Amino acid sequence: MNIRTKSIFVLILLGIVDVVIPIPIIGLMLIYVIVQKPSWFLDLAQEIYRLG
After folding, report:
1. How buried is 34 (Cβ within 10 angstroms: 0-12 exposed, 13-18 middle, 19+ buried)?
2. pLDDT confidence of 33, banded at 50, 70, 90?
3. Are 18 and 25 in contact (CB under 8 A)?
4. Average pLDDT in the 28-52 region?
5. Which stretch of DSSP H or E encloses residue 29?
6. CA distance 52 to 48
7. In this structure, how many other beta carbons lie within 10 angstroms of the beta carbon of residue 7?
8. What is the pLDDT of residues 16-31, one digit of tens each?
9. Is residue 48 classed as helix, strand or coil in its secondary structure?
10. For 21, phi and psi rounded to 5 degrees?
11. If we measure between CA atoms, which residue out of 13, 8, 15, 4 comes closest to residue 47?
12. 45 or 22: whose pLDDT is higher?
């Protein structure tokens, strides 16, 4: 399974969890990424665009 497929799978899973639990997990994760700018997110984005 490549990184793009894994990313889509995780986003779908988070979307399902977001529907079941009334806490906006995806929104909280987005705020975390924007505020903290973690290195893992930059690495993930670069790997997705490198493969595409």
Report:
1. exposed
2. very high
3. yes
4. 88
5. helix 25-36
6. 6
7. 14
8. 888 888 888 888 888 9
9. helix
10. -100, 130
11. 4
12. 45
Residue 40's pLDDT is what? 92
CA–CA distance, 40 with 52 (Å, rounded to integer): 18
Six-digit token pair at 19? 């529907």
What CA–CA distance (Å, rounded) separates 16 from 24? 11
The whole-angstrom separation of Cα 52 and Cα 46 is 10
49 residue type, one letter: Y
Mean pLDDT of the chain: 87
Helix (H) or strand (E) holding 23: none
Query: How many residues are present in the chain?
Result: 52
